[in-house]
Design a protein that fits this description.
The protein has about 190 residues and is an alpha+beta fold. It is built from eight helices and five strands; from the N terminus they run βββββαααααααα. Strand 1 and strand 2 form a beta hairpin. The protein starts with a strand and ends with a helix.
């Protein structure tokens, strides 16, 4: 099993990239090829797809996106191509928040995901993702205590607060007002 590939992007295609590792190059399917630039040095985290008819690599810019892909492909009826297509229009945090909130409407907007698949994703993944998401949410609650307090004052339950705060994008030190806006948007989507 190939865990990751570190090298230089030498070609960007419609649904894949070619990465040169020095003496060998790999063609790797990705969800958003436009995120990659020719000549860029990077590490792609990979998943190997091996079926009766196909054998190829799928690559991800982050471990979290790889985890989202693996979670989706573990759902009955969701194959690698459908999972990649769905990930082309969402990010892992939004996907996991939608699952935690049982937001089938959000999932149905993703390419290749219809009402039946959305229900199956929620059924299969909601319980499995809870522990990982709770740990992630707990660290964000510590980072945004004002947002947590405001949501509590609005009458939201602790679980809803954790899920909403978990949807705030990582890697950004957002002002609490902006973080609160994102959390409230997440909660309003879950109520639809």
């Amino acid at each position: 099993m190939i865990y990751s590939l570190s090298g230089r992007i030498v070609e960007v295609g419609q649904d894949k990239v070619a990465i040169d590792l020095g003496s060998i190059g790999y063609e790797v399917f990705v969800s958003r090829p436009s995120d990659f630039l020719e000549g860029e040095e990077l590490t792609l985290y990979t998943a190997e797809v091996l079926t009766q008819d196909d054998h190829y690599l799928v690559g991800f810019a982050s471990k979290r996106e790889k985890a989202a892909f693996e979670a989706l492909t573990s759902v009955k009826g969701i194959g690698p191509k459908t999972a990649l297509s769905a990930l082309s229009k969402t990010d892992p945090d939004s996907l996991f928040a939608a699952i935690a909130l049982s937001n089938a409407n959000y999932l149905k907007k993703l390419p290749g995901i219809g009402p039946k698949a959305a229900s199956q994703i929620i059924l299969d993944l909601k319980g499995k993702l809870v522990e990982a998401e709770e740990k992630k949410a707990a660290t964000k609650v510590d980072r945004y205590p004002g947002v947590a307090a405001a949501l509590k004052n609005f009458g939201f339950k602790a679980k809803e607060i954790e899920t909403a705060i978990a949807a705030i994008p990582d890697g950004q030190n957002l002002p609490e007002g902006e973080a609160l806006r994102i959390a409230l948007q997440t909660l309003s989507k879950g109520k639809k």
